[in-house]
Write a structure and sequence with these properties.
heterotrimer, A alpha/beta, B alpha+beta, C alpha+beta, C: alpha+beta, Phosphoribosyl-aminoimidazole Synthetase, Chain A, domain 2, seven-stranded mixed β-sheet, four-stranded mixed β-sheet
C-alpha cells in the first residue's frame, strides 16, 4: 500500500530507535503524551514500546472520542430509540460502550431498538431517503477530523430538503482538551505527540497556544509507526535542548492552516458550546460544538427535546485518572478482574485504542515476561 | 482517533470519487476538497477525502529517514 | 406428484407439513440434485455398513447473510464447513446429512440455486448428502434459509489429532492466506459497499488433510480458523494444550486486497473468518516435509510456517511484529466491528 508500507519498514524503525537511544539523556525520564487514540493503538499494534528505551514513557491521552463520551449521552440516545422509535445510526465504535445501569447500544439493539451501524454520515442520509416515514438520527461523535463530514451531511440534507434527518451532535475539540490536561498539571508531561488527522483539518498553527502557554514541545506525528518514532526523536531533541515549539512531522498531509474548505464548512454549520461534559475530565468550557440555530431542524437535541442525563461512573473505575495520564490502567482495582475487554466497566477498556484495552493485551504480556 | 487511510483516486463523479486501495475500490465524497485529480492520493475517513497527500513532502520525509539510517550506520 | 414451480414459486407452509407438497419439494428439488443411491431409497434414514475404526461425527448450523457471496453461498459453505470439521480430526469424511429450515415466502429459484451448489460441492468432494429434513417457519421467523449439516468420518489407525496435544517446540503451519472469506462477506453486505475481486476461500480440505496425515502421521493438532479467525484458533489451541505460541507477522500470508480492506475498515486480518484454510501443529522435525506436501496440493500452495509452540503458563499467543516489537494476539472480545477511530 503506497504511503503506508514505506512508513512501516522494520529496518528503518530499528535504526531510528537506535538513534533515539544514542541521543536520550539516561539521567532523566521523558514522559510523552500521545494525545490521539489512533496513536495509542499504533504504538501497541506495532510493538513500538519494545523499541524505545525504558526512560521514554508513553502517557495515553484523552484523544479517543469514544472514551470521553459521557455515559449520559449514550443513555440519551438509547432513550430516543426506545421512546421516539427513531432509526439511530451510529459508528460501530460506540456499540459496546457501557452506558449507565449496565446498558449499551448493543444491549438496546438486542431489546429491539432500531440501531444501525454505519461507516459514514452519507449512509445515514441514505437511510433517511429510503425511510421517509421514519425519523433518522445520526449519533455524531469525533474530534475535528470527523466534524467536517457531519457538517457536509447536514448541508446536503438542507439542500435536498430531507425532513426526517437529524444529528445528535457530540463533536469535541482538540486544543481545549490539550490545554486542560496541561493546566491540570498533575500528569507532568514533557512533550506531546499531536494527532495526525485532526491536524490535517485544523493545521499546525492551532497548537501554538499550547506550546507558548505551557512551554511543552508538541510534534504533529503522522499515523504510521515510522512517523511516530521519528516524532519521538524530534520531541527528545526539543526536550534535550530545553525548547518548546510546534513541529510538524506529518508534512505530507498537514499544513500550517489546515483544510480551509473543511474549516469553513464546520464554522458554517457548528458553533461553540459554552460547555460540555467529558467523561473523565469533567465539564470543560468551550471544548465542543453544537449545531447553529439556522440548522435547528437538523439538531436532534432540539427536535426531540433531549434532556441532560447525569450518570455516575462505576464505583472503582478510574478512567478519569487514566484519561488524564495520572494513573496506569493496572493501578485500577477493577482492571483485569471485574473489567476486561469482554466485560468492560469503563470506556477505556471498550475502545480498542483505550489505554486500558491496550494495556490489557500488551501489559499482561510484559508482566508475564517479567515473572517468567 | 481518526482512522484515515491513503487511497488513490481512479474516477471522478461530481462531488464524489472512486478510490483504490490495493485493489479495493470505494466511493468517497470529495466535498471537503477543492481540486482532486485522478492519480492523486487522498486520506479517506468515514467516507470523505480529508486531504491530498503531497508526494514531494512524502519523499522528503522518506529522505529524512534515510539520513537518520545513515547516521545510525556510522555510529 | 404435484407440480413445483421452481422459476417463480415461493416456499409455502404446506411444503413443511409432510404432505403432498412436502414430498414434491423433496423429490423435485432436493433428491433431484443430491441424487445418490442412499438418498434415492427414499427412507427417513440412510443405512450403510460402517468400516472398522474410530468414527467421528460433527455438526454445524449455517445462518450466514448474505446467502450468496463472491466465491460461494450458504449451500456450498454448509458442505465445506462440516467436511472440514470432520477432516480436522484426521478423518476421511464419509457421509453428510442436511436439515433445512425454510422461511415462508423464500423464492424456490433461490433455494434451487443453493441446493444445486450444495450438490456440486458434495459431488466434487466425494461426500454425498444421504439424508435430510425440511421444515418451514412463518414469514418473518427465519432469514430465508438456515442449513444444518452433520457429517461422519473414519479416522485411520495410528492417527491421534486433538487440540490438547500441542507441545513446546512444535511448529505452527497455516495452509494459505488469511481473511479472504470474511472480507468477501463484508464486501457484499449492505452499507459497507466496497468492491473487490476477493472471493471467499470456502473449500473442502479433506484431500489436503489426507495427504498430510499420510506423509506425517505424527501431526498433533489440526483446526480450521473460521469465526474469530486465526487469532481465535491459536488461542483455543494454546488453552487446550496449556502452552504458549510465538508467531512472526512477516510469515503470515495475507493477500494485498485483504490488507487494504482491513486498513480501510480498521480491522485486523488475524481475527477475520476463513472457510478454506487450516492451522496445523506438528513436531518441528517434520515441519519442512509437511510443508512441501501441503504446497503441492492446490489448497495448500501458499502454506507457510508461521511460528512455534512454547512453554507458557499464561497460555499467551505473542506475535513478533514486522518491527521486531512484540504484540499479544489476544482472544477476540465481542464481535470485531469496523471502526472510525
Amino acid at each position: 500500500m503506497k504511503y503506508v508500507d514505506e512508513f512501516r519498514d522494520g529496518d528503518t524503525a530499528r535504526a531510528l530507535a537506535r538513534v533515539i537511544r544514542a541521543e536520550i539523556n539516561p539521567e532523566r525520564n521523558y514522559r510523552l503524551m500521545e494525545f490521539c487514540g489512533g496513536h495509542t493503538h499504533a504504538i501497541f499494534r506495532f510493538g513500538i514500546v519494545d523499541l524505545m528505551p525504558d526512560n521514554i514513557r508513553f502517557i495515553h491521552g484523552p484523544g479517543c472520542p469514544v472514551c470521553v463520551l459521557p455515559a449520559g449521552r449514550i443513555e440519551a440516545a438509547i432513550r430516543l430509540v426506545e421512546e421516539e422509535d427513531v432509526i439511530l445510526c451510529t459508528y460501530a465504535d460506540l456499540m459496546r460502550v457501557p452506558a449507565g445501569k449496565k446498558d449499551s447500544l448493543q444491549k438496546a439493539k438486542a431489546r429491539g431498538g432500531d440501531i444501525r451501524m454505519i461507516y459514514s454520515p452519507t449512509d445515514a442520509l441514505s437511510l433517511a431517503r429510503e425511510n421517509p416515514q421514519r425519523e433518522v438520527v445520526f449519533f455524531a461523535i469525533g474530534f475535528e477530523t470527523t466534524t467536517p463530514p457531519t457538517a457536509a451531511a447536514i448541508k446536503i440534507a438542507e439542500a435536498e430538503e430531507i425532513s426526517n434527518f437529524s444529528v445528535f451532535c457530540n463533536h469535541v475539540e482538540t486544543p481545549p482538551a490539550m490545554m486542560h490536561i496541561l493546566t491540570a498539571g498533575d500528569a507532568k508531561i514533557d512533550g506531546i505527540l499531536g494527532p495526525s488527522h485532526v491536524s490535517t483539518i485544523i493545521g499546525s498553527n492551532a497548537y501554538a497556544d499550547c506550546c507558548d502557554k505551557y512551554r511543552v514541545p508538541l510534534v504533529i506525528a503522522g499515523f504510521e509507526p515510522l512517523d511516530v518514532i521519528q516524532s519521538v526523536l524530534m520531541l527528545v531533541r526539543q526536550i534535550n535542548a530545553g525548547v518548546a515549539r510546534v513541529e510538524n512531522q506529518y508534512t505530507r498531509a498537514v499544513s500550517e492552516t489546515g483544510n480551509e474548505k473543511a474549516k469553513v464548512l464546520m464554522h458554517e454549520v457548528f458553533e461553540q458550546r459554552p460547555q460540555f461534559e467529558w467523561r473523565g475530565l469533567g465539564v470543560l468550557p468551550n471544548s465542543a460544538v453544537q449545531i447553529r440555530s439556522e440548522f435547528a431542524d437538523f439538531d436532534a437535541e432540539k427536535r426531540f427535546g433531549m434532556k441532560e442525563i447525569a450518570t455516575a461512573d462505576i464505583k472503582g473505575c478510574i478512567c478519569p485518572a487514566v484519561l488524564r495520564g495520572m494513573n496506569n490502567p493496572d493501578e485500577c482495582k477493577l482492571f483485569g478482574t471485574a473489567c476486561t475487554p469482554e466485560d468492560p466497566k469503563g470506556a477505556c477498556m471498550v475502545s480498542s485504542e483505550g489505554a486500558c484495552a491496550a494495556y490489557y493485551s500488551y501489559g499482561r504480556y510484559r508482566s508475564a515476561e517479567a515473572t517468567a | 482517533m481518526c482512522l484515515a487511510v491513503p487511497a488513490r483516486v481512479v474516477e471522478l463523479n461530481g462531488d464524489s470519487a472512486i478510490v483504490d486501495l490495493d485493489g479495493i475500490r470505494k466511493e468517497t465524497s470529495t466535498l471537503l476538497l477543492d481540486e482532486v485529480a485522478i492519480g492523486d492520493y487522498v486520506l479517506i475517513h468515514v467516507g470523505y477525502a480529508l486531504e491530498r497527500i503531497d508526494p514531494l513532502e512524502a519523499a522528503k520525509t522518506l529522505k529524512l529517514f534515510d539520513e537518520l539510517k545513515a547516521m545510525d550506520a556510522e555510529a | 406428484m404435484s407440480k413445483l414451480d421452481i422459476k417463480s414459486g415461493l416456499v409455502e407452509m404446506g411444503h413443511g407439513s409432510g404432505g403432498r407438497a412436502s414430498a414434491t419439494l423433496i423429490e423435485k428439488l432436493f433428491v433431484r440434485h443430491f441424487d445418490n443411491e442412499l438418498l434415492d431409497q427414499g427412507n427417513d434414514q440412510a443405512l450403510f455398513n460402517v468400516p472398522a475404526g474410530r468414527m467421528v461425527i460433527s455438526t454445524d448450523g449455517h445462518v450466514i447473510t448474505p446467502l450468496f457471496f463472491p466465491g460461494g453461498d450458504i449451500g456450498s459453505l454448509s458442505v465445506h464447513g462440516t467436511i472440514n470439521d470432520v477432516a480436522m480430526s484426521g478423518a476421511t469424511p464419509l457421509y453428510l446429512s442436511a436439515s433445512f429450515i425454510l422461511e415462508e415466502g423464500f423464492p424456490l429459484a433461490e433455494l434451487d440455486r443453493i441446493v444445486i451448489s450444495m450438490a456440486k460441492a458434495s459431488r466434487d468432494a466425494g461426500v454425498p448428502v444421504v439424508t435430510g429434513d425440511t421444515k418451514v417457519v412463518e414469514r418473518g421467523k427465519g432469514d430465508g434459509v438456515f442449513i444444518t449439516t452433520t457429517g461422519i468420518g473414519i479416522v485411520p489407525d495410528g492417527i491421534n489429532i486433538s487440540g490438547d496435544l500441542a507441545e513446546p517446540g512444535d511448529s505452527i503451519i497455516v495452509s494459505g492466506s488469511i481473511g479472504d472469506h470474511g472480507i468477501a462477506i463484508l464486501s457484499s453486505r449492505e452499507g459497507l459497499q466496497f468492491s473487490t475481486a476477493i472471493e471467499s476461500d470456502s473449500a473442502a480440505l479433506h484431500t489436503l488433510v489426507a495427504g498430510m496425515v499420510a506423509a506425517v502421521p505424527a501431526i498433533h493438532c489440526l483446526r480450521d480458523p473460521t469465526r474469530g479467525g486465526l487469532a481465535t484458533t491459536l488461542n483455543e489451541l494454546a488453552r487446550q494444550s496449556n502452552v504458549g505460541m510465538r508467531i512472526q507477522e512477516t510469515s503470515i500470508p495475507v493477500k494485498a486486497e485483504v490488507k487494504g480492506a482491513c486498513e480501510l475498515l480498521g480491522l485486523d486480518p488475524l481475527y477475520i473468518a476463513n472457510e478454506g484454510k487450516l492451522v496445523c501443529i506438528v513436531p518441528s522435525k517434520d515441519a519442512d516435509q509437511l510443508l512441501a506436501v501441503m504446497q503441492k496440493h492446490p489448497l495448500g500452495q501458499n502454506a507457510a510456517i508461521i511460528g512455534n509452540v512454547c512453554k507458557d503458563a499464561h497460555q499467551m499467543v505473542v506475535m513478533e511484529t514486522a518491527f521486531g516489537g512484540n504484540r499479544v494476539v489476544d482472544w477476540l472480545a465481542g464481535e470485531q466491528l469496523p471502526r472510525i477511530c
